[in-house]
Amino acid sequence: MTTTKMPRSLLAGLLVCVSLVLHTAVAQVSKREPNYYGKYIARFPEGNHGITGTVYAVDESTFFIKNFTFDGQAPAAYFWVGNEDVVGPSGTPLPYPESKSRNPQPLGRYVNADVILRLPSNMKIRDIKWLSVWCHRFTVNFAHIFIPSNLSYPSIRVLPEFKRLAHGLRSDNITILDSKTFYIPNLHYDGAGPDAYFWVGRGNEPNQYGMKIPNEVNKTSPLNGYEGVDIEVVLPGNLTVYDIDYLAVWCVQYKHNFGHVLIPKDLDVPPALGQTKIAPAWWYVPTSSTAAPDLDNCIELLDGRVQVQWKMMDDDVQIRVSAYIREDQYVAFGISGVDGRAEMIGADVVVIGYNKETKKFIAEDYYMSEYSQCNGVKGVCPDHRIGGKNDAVLITGKRNNGVTSGELTRADFFFFPSPSQQKGKSLATRYHPFYITDSPEGGFSQLTEEQQRHQRVFAGVAYDRNNYPYPTAVGRYCEYGHKRTDQSAKTETFEEFFATLKLDCEEGEPGKLVWYVEEDTPDLVYYQCYTHRNLGWKINVVEQGHVAKAESGGGSVAASIALLFVLLAVAAPLR
Fold this sequence. Notes:
This protein is mainly beta. It folds into 4 domains: about 40-145, no CATH class; about 155-260, no CATH class; about 295-410, Immunoglobulin-like; about 435-560, no CATH class. Helices cover about 5% and strands about 35% of the residues. It has helices at about 10-25, 450-455, 495-500; strands at about 40-45, 50-60, 60-70, 75-80, 90-95, 110-120, 130-135, 140-145, 155-160, 175-180, 180-190, 195-200, 210-215, 225-235, 245-250, 255-260, 295-300, 305-315, 315-325, 330-335, 350-355, 360-370, 380, 390-400, 405-410, 435, 455-460, 460-465, 470, 480, 500-505, 525-530, 535-540, 545-550, 555-560. The strands form 10 sheets. A 5-stranded antiparallel beta sheet has the order 17-18-19-25-24, with no helix packed on it. Strand 15 and strand 16 (about 255-260) form a beta hairpin. The chain is elongated.
């Protein structure tokens, strides 16, 4: 066996080559690795005040400095950028931490800190030539790096919209903001899927081998409906967009794809370093940061879907209530009816919402005495209807990205109105006496005497000796409940759902309403609740009689065939 010695010059060349390869590997980590920070630019040379750190370009307007160290002993040091050939005083400061103040705080002491620096909105990395730590007071450059003119950096990636396959799922074009974050604008979904989730995985199309990911509030519960809202969803754990081939809305129970978008293979998106703010903390215009609250106190409720901020102002309190709700929904916030725990009965609240008909925001005081619609005496009643007054003064309201916000002042927040008994008013709030009327709204007991005179009643209302009205179809209280658990999400039709209910009635007899239809009855009338509004529906009256000759021959008589209604006074089914 013979051996050949390698020439000393060749060995040296190989060592140099290996050294260069290792150096490049340290500087440019694979985008799939957890320690990928963006496009490597340079390291700060160790200079004055112990400055060190490695600088990366996260995207077109963001730097990331890994392990930044600075002793903080300079009187007015700032991160400083410019487009001149030489570092100088004509540059632009980059306050850190971020601040919109005209007099931002100078840099303090940092040891191996991770720093995210955002350029002003009118500036991109391609517009500048250097990044420096600069002393503004003494015009001294402590340390700097130069930025290559041909530097390439990661950027967001715009994808197509969701494919529209089922349950009204649709969106505008989806954007990958960073390696873990999807921005989904104008999202629509009817919420009717029984077991639907945001879903990711491998393959040319969604399949059962994928995995669910949290929704926009970091929950993995089945998805509710969306009505044109903008949301951001984040991949969990160490999962990144480089590990998946699709984002979908998928029903686990029925293994059904409601719609999806495919992820391209040639991605070069920014790393997820926290530069992309995720909702909540708190709901904001997507891809931008939210200013700190300007009110003294803040609390988040209902898994982060509601935020309440407040500040005491002499005898008043200024309140801002924001809620992630549909445009036709409202939010109520106030003082519990019981000390020490949340209780709706007895609660004094302010209701904030948006009226789509008037196109105005509302803020109104309510008092809750019963779990029912207000009948003018009890129920969920505006204060002004039960002897109180509205102490909530709306300052401003707005709606943005699916969030309704109202700012108001409230005088004496601990004011509790006292309901007053009104003669002639029914207190039936647990059941709903029927009556037949020409009113599409109903609620006879809530009307004034003048309003009652303008409503035509065909059956179900009588008057006592003092000429006060009362309902005649009053009986025991009955309510449909679930036989076991709520099966509404698992049934396809109302008939199937109704079969899962049982009727429970209190002791007593059912109420009965008998209506003999007269000839002059309108073609359209309504069955309504005597004590509450808008709980009834239509009755179409059709001709069922005929005109017959009297057997005695003395002219003709109208033989009115009566339509008989027997209606039980029961609560509406729980659907």
